[in-house]
Design goal:
Blueprint (H helix, E strand, L loop, with lengths): L3 H16 L5 H9 L20 E4 L2 E3 L2 H10 L7 E5 L5 H8 L3 E6 L2 H13 L5 E4 L12 E6 L8 H5 L1 E11 L5 E10 L2 E10 L13
Parallel strand pairs: 3-4, 3-6, 4-5, 6-7
Antiparallel strand pairs: 1-2, 7-8, 8-9
Helix pairs in contact: 1-2, 2-4
Bound molecules: S-adenosyl-L-homocysteine (SAH).
Length: 215
């Protein structure tokens, strides 16, 4: 259930995100309209509108609202963009993309989280293509994508994902294996040509590789 109290807390969160430098009105509008508390375990409902990451089960976390807003802003979304998301997790980021009228294809390697998202999204009135699988491989059957967003810390930029990006497209990916990752934005300017930009340090759970794949 979404109450006036939740709506009030959300407004405050949006104000905080503005103060922290989020300027994309559509991103702010999406965050203002999505009941983030419905993506958290009941025990954390009272924390849903703090600007913090929280556990969502299977050893994973829902990204901090600022991080979600920042990554989404970097994507320069346009209505109808075909977006590939790696790391569905709680599906909160997925909903932000959907709220901004993107067509979303999202991959998650934890079965529990994949199954939860499959139930939650339609219940909230959203529709996305969800996949249980390895994000390093992307979704070649549905490529190319206008935008690709990776919501886990990647040790390197996966080649398959670069291939599945449209020329003219944008990929946003936190890169690094240590404690923190550097937010990178790639613009694909030719079949094998990319422009890179960096946007500071963030903390993500790791993008796990195939060999550690488990249900
Ligand atoms: N966007 C999510 C972030 C969840 S954290 C949210 O806001 O809730 C990152 C997610 O990436 C985790 O759910 C984790 O299980 C998933 N993940 C890690 N490695 C992956 C891989 N190789 N392929 C797909 N998903 C992966």
């Amino acid at each position: 259930m979404d109450t006036y109290r939740h709506k009030g807390l959300r407004k405050k969160l949006v104000e905080l995100l503005k103060e922290k430098g989020i300027t994309d009105e559509q991103v702010l509008e999406a965050i203002n309209s999505i009941p983030r508390h419905l993506f958290l375990d009941n025990a954390f409902v009272n924390f849903a509108y703090q600007d913090k990451a929280f556990p969502i089960g299977a050893g994973q976390t829902i990204s901090q609202p600022f991080t979600v807003a920042f990554q989404t802003q970097l994507l320069e979304l346009e209505r109808g963009d075909k977006v590939l998301e790696i790391g569905t997790g709680s599906a909160y980021q997925t909903c932000v993309l959907l709220e901004m009228k993107a067509k979303v294809f999202s991959i998650e390697r934890q079965k529990l989280l994949f199954q939860r998202a499959k139930v939650l999204l339609p219940k909230m009135g959203y529709s996305a293509k969800l996949f249980f699988g390895d994000g390093y491989k992307g979704q070649p059957a549905f490529a190319p994508f206008d935008k690709i967003i990776i919501t886990a810390g990647a040790p390197f930029i996966p080649e398959d994902l670069k291939k599945q990006l449209k020329v003219g497209g944008i990929m946003v990916i936190p890169v690094g294996e240590g404690e923190s990752q550097v937010m990178q934005r790639l613009r694909k300017i030719g079949e094998t040509e990319f422009e890179y930009e960096e946007f500071g340090d963030f903390k993500f759970v790791p993008l796990l590789q195939d060999k550690s794949f488990s249900n």
